[in-house]
Design brief:
This protein has a single domain (about 10-130), classed as Globin-like (Orthogonal Bundle). It is built from five helices and no strands. The protein has helices spanning about 10-25, 30-40, 40-60, 80-95, 100-130. The chain is globular and about 55 Å long.
Length: about 130
């Protein structure tokens, strides 16, 4: 049996991101949304995610940008974020063990909750002000 270790370097980040998104792409609930949005851009998306998680977890500042805007118009609801989080947690727990892995799950949960809240906020604002 393999002993799990913590996330410590870019190779660990790549393993987490690649494994996670491989599962997402095949998921019958959220996979179609990701595949429709990303299309043939998976290599670029994965590269961006490596830098994002490397910046968040390893304090290597390789990501710049704002992660929310590309998600603003996605046809998603709370259930989609819950499924995303379920896959992320399961992937992380299957691959890693330690404080950085825990931090990854904590950050992912906060991000999912914030994105869901913001998407709902913008949808509600658009309904109240349809001409803006």
């Amino acid at each position: 049996m393999t002993t799990l270790t913590d996330i410590t370097n870019l190779d660990d980040i790549k393993l987490l991101v690649d494994t996670f998104y491989s599962t997402v792409q095949k998921d019958t609930f959220i996979g179609p949304i990701f595949n429709e949005k990303i299309g043939n851009g998976w290599p670029e998306h994965l590269e961006k995610m490596y830098h994002f998680w490397q910046t968040i977890l390893l304090e290597v500042h390789s990501y710049s940008g704002s992660p929310f805007p590309p998600h603003k118009q996605l046809p998603v609801a709370k259930e989609h974020f819950e499924r995303w989080m379920e896959i992320f947690t399961e992937t992380t727990d299957n691959l890693f063990l330690g404080p950085v892995a825990d931090e990854a799950k904590f950050r992912a949960k906060n991000m999912a909750e914030m994105f869901n809240y913001k998407i709902e906020y913008f949808r509600n604002a658009a309904k109240q002000n349809p001409h803006q």
